[in-house]
Amino acid sequence: MLLQIPQVLTSDQVAQFRSRMEGAAWVDGNVTSGHQSAQAKYNEQLAEDSAVARELGDAVVAALGRNQLFFSAALPKRVFPPLFNRYQGGMEFGNHVDGAVRVHGPTGLRIRTDISATLFLTAPADYDGGELLVEDTYGVQRVKLPAGDMVLYPATSLHRVQPVTRGARIASFFWIQSMVREDAQRSLLFDLDMSIMRLTQANKDHPSLVSLTGCYHNLLRMWAEP
């Protein structure tokens, strides 16, 4: 399931993030790459143990904790501490699949990467190129979102970032270990949860709501690894 989550950060928060990044030290993005990714990756990122990266990463995690759509779609068990990257001057990231397990150097946190996330911090009009291309059942999906919006997609997906030919593309990226490992199961639960919410808004006393909610929680009970 590929899903856009709008306004994870407000415009004011995005501006604050960008302000904090000004003057921060950017390093070669391959400091967190595995062998495969290092062959295709050409970008910069904030050092993951830097004070700015830790501060902004904590703010992203706090925003995720307030976002019901994110929780419904990801059913998060663990969130990898968010990282921040920058593409400019022709930088790109060729075709790759994210590693199955990520280890956070500063803390030793180890997670299984079920879901990949990119949170855009630059307005689309401010740079050319830089689209995230994700291959799924329906072909190649092109993603270039407003600043503050985030995309979730299965970490098993083949994906790439197109070269940035004007301006700079700045984003936060991270991974989620879900309570429900399989993408197909998460998608079914998400569709059911959204249907329950819509039915509740249309008719909160509908007799089917109890049954549907029971189905949701019994499926979650069957599949979840809390």
Compute the number of strand runs.
17
Q: How is the main sheet built?
A: 8 strands, antiparallel
Average of the residue pLDDT scores? 94
The tally of helices reads: 6
Would you identify the regions where 5 or more consecutive residues have pLDDT less than 50? none
Following the backbone from N to C, one meets helices and strands in this order, namely EHEHEEHHEEEEEEEEEEEEEHH
For the termini, the CA-CA separation is 21 Å
Structural class based on helices, strands and sheet pairing: alpha+beta
Rg (C-alpha, Å): 18 Å
Shape summary: globular
Q: What share of the residues lie within helices?
A: 25-40%
The percentage of residues in β strands lies in 25-35%
Please outline what is shown here:
With 226 residues, the chain is of the alpha+beta class.
Description:
A hairpin with a 2-residue loop joins strand 12 and strand 13. The strands form 4 sheets. Strands 1, 2, 4, 5, 6, 10, 14 and 17 form an 8-stranded antiparallel β-sheet that branches. Strands 3-7-15-12-13 form a 5-stranded antiparallel β-sheet. The chain contains 6 helices and 17 strands. The chain is an alpha+beta fold.
